[in-house]
Write a structure and sequence with these properties.
CATH topology of the largest domain: Rossmann fold
Radius of gyration: 22 Å
Strand content: 15-25%
Oligomer: single chain
Number of helices: 15
Helix content: 25-40%
Length: about 450
């Protein structure tokens, strides 16, 4: 069989194959621009645009900030942004008063070529884009402290815009249930202390939230967005080929809830039983291991206790520089990581990291948080990694098993299993799907 691997299809040989789990085929939207215009004609959006027009007629020249997904999400911005810019122009907001802000979170800056690939040459020439700096105090605005004690820092250019808009793709998320909606703002364009709080809270729950609509973290970030505002949210549901299959626009909570059922239909994969051996492709989260780990989060619950998850991920950028200690963090015992995260300071103090278990001052809270969940997964299941972008030393440092190919991994794993358990299941798009035991399983 073949499995998506970066921009290619990789042929692999799978013995004793059982369930092959892939997203279903949905009918793409023929004209995304027309559907967006129809959505913007709804009562909520029409009222917002009318307010903008009134400000323009009053000589206020309102500014607009549009937050969009970065290079780590398969968001076809070219299908949405030209129409959105035209609508804003029709309301009197000129291109010169519109800013595109990239929701980087802790990721590296987006390159001009990456933005051009997602948004198109026309959008790049009309409005350009801004990579926010998570650590620059001058580019951040403090909105105080949330009721749960989170210091709320957000990109200043967005916070001070008159019209606040976000465009994102809804994908399964192991800590929030689904991405999209308010998550574009928090942690997308938040300051580091706020991002730290998000990551620590999101990874403190040992359960798997992928596919849930009512995760506690989503409720928290939606409350944070109330502090800064988000006037218009455009959520996309995109199939593995990059085609838009669903679109909803409106209030950031309502539009998200309307889009999620289609995302559940596309990304939720019902299974009849848990797997003893599960091969998981990381597509579309395959650029580096920080992204590829999403496939482990999404699929680990489908592996029976003591079973194997074999992750297949290109990881062309290896362990990203922004989270250079990720492999060493994952390799720590869960109790040690939890103790480090329990530090009350916004950053782990170097003295607290001293010890013989490999901890050091480069292990920041944002990196430690998902490492805690991965370290816990390692206690329940066994994880193997096949990745040309990672070294055997890096993988083994995580406490995982390293193999050069899927075939080598399966040869090693299956020889130690009883004949009755030698059945291998495959998830082709683990970075965007979540298998679950439930109705509809074949």
């Amino acid at each position: 069989m073949t499995i998506p691997f970066g921009k290619e299809l990789l042929p692999i040989s799978v013995p004793h194959v059982g369930q092959i789990l892939s997203p279903p085929t949905l009918t793409p939207i023929e004209d995304v621009g027309d559907l967006l215009k129809a959505e913007l004609g709804g009562e909520y959006c029409a009222s917002l645009l009318e307010t903008v027009e009134k400000k323009v007629r009053g000589g206020n020249n309102p500014t607009a900030a549009i937050v969009v997904n970065d290079y780590t999400r398969p968001t076809p911005l070219h299908a949405v942004l030209p129409t959105l810019l035209d609508v804003l122009n029709a309301c009197g907001v000129e291109d010169s008063l519109i800013r595109i802000v990239i929701a980087l979170g802790t990721h590296r800056p987006m390159s001009e070529e990456e933005f051009r690939s997602q948004a198109g040459e026309q959008v790049l020439n009309r409005v350009g884009f801004v990579n926010p700096d998570i650590d620059d105090p001058h580019s951040l605005l403090s909105l105080g402290t949330s009721p749960s004690g989170v210091e709320v820092l957000v990109n200043r250019e967005y916070a001070q815009a008159d019209v606040k808009i976000a465009v994102g793709t809804i994908l399964p998320h192991g800590a929030v249930g689904f991405s999209g909606g308010a998550k574009l703002i928090y942690p997308g364009i938040a300051g580091r202390k706020t991002v730290e709080s998000f990551h620590v809270a999101a990874n403190s729950d040992p359960g798997n939230q992928a596919g849930r609509l009512d995760s506690p973290i989503r409720e928290e970030i939606e409350k944070l967005v109330e502090l800064v505002g988000l006037d218009l949210m455009i959520n996309l549901v995109v199939d593995p080929a990059g085609a838009v299959c669903g679109l909803s626009a409106g209030h950031y909570i309502d539009s998200h809830r309307r889009a999620v059922p289609l995302a559940q239909k596309l990304y939720g994969l019902p299974i009849s039983r848990k797997s003893a051996v599960l091969v998981v492709g990381s597509t579309p989260a395959d650029l580096d291991f920080w992204q590829a780990a999403k496939a482990i989060f999404n699929c680990q619950a489908a592996v029976e206790d003591g079973g194997w998850l074999v992750l297949l991920a290109p990881c062309a950028e290896g362990i990203p520089a922004e989270h250079a200690s990720f492999d060493r963090c994952i390799g720590l015992p869960p109790v040690r990581i939890a103790a480090l995260l329990a530090q009350t300071a916004g950053q782990v103090e170097p003295a607290a990291l001293a010890g013989r278990d490999g901890a050091d001052p480069s292990m920041d809270r944002v990196t430690l948080a998902p490492a805690l969940a991965l370290s816990r997964f390692r206690q329940r299941i066994r994880i193997a990694v096949v990745s040309p972008g990672l070294s055997s030393e890096q993988v083994e440092r995580m406490g995982f098993s390293y193999f050069r190919s899927v075939e080598a991994a399966l040869d090693s794993i299956l020889k130690d299993l009883p004949a009755a358990e030698r059945r291998v299941d495959v998830v082709t798009h683990g970075g965007a799907t979540y298998p679950f035991v439930g109705p509809g399983a074949s």
